[in-house]
Amino acid sequence: MIGHGLRLRTFAVSLALGLFAAGAMAHGDVTPHPVDTTGLKALGDTWLDADPYRGNAKAVEIGAEGYKHNCAACHGLNAVSGGMAPDLLALDTDCLGMAGDSKASCLKDTDEYFKDVVLNGKKNSEGRVTMPGYESVFTQEAVWAIKAYIDARTLEEQ
Ligand code: HEC
User: Does the keyword Signal apply (predicted)?
Assistant: First the structure.
């Protein structure tokens, strides 16, 4: 009995996720699009371990565009979550309230986590893709510009 109920629940959840994915596509494009980062300092092929563009106005502007075309359909317009996908403004709330070395090392950790999730995407426990990976379309510049935008939005909301 218990096993049966569990299977039914799992099925209902998969169904809901499927509908959610279809809904997200109907309301906005969720196919990864490259980001034009012309105007930003080029960073080369070796990944930096922290966002070099934090607080850079041009990067925030470019990141906002990149976010709008790639992430907003799921994570919400202006990075305000509608509840379908995690609230990205929560990523750095704690770090940005810190000072000095603790702040830098906290932000470095969230930068790395952000980079890994964005490049590889996410799968649920059944192996279904819940977020696409952007490794094939995003340059390092694109990833850090979008993170700079999210940090700027986090500060605005504080
Ligand atoms: C198709 C919908 C979808 C798109 C498009 C999408 N995401 Fe996600 N994202 C999700 C979901 C769902 C999760 C949670 C998945 C999980 O934890 O299993 C997630 C998780 C994340 C996380 C981890 C958040 C946390 O609190 O741990 C980050 C960071 C993230 N997404 C950033 C982005 C960025 C940046 C973009 C655009 C480049 C993007 N996502 C595009 C659906 C999406």
Answer: yes
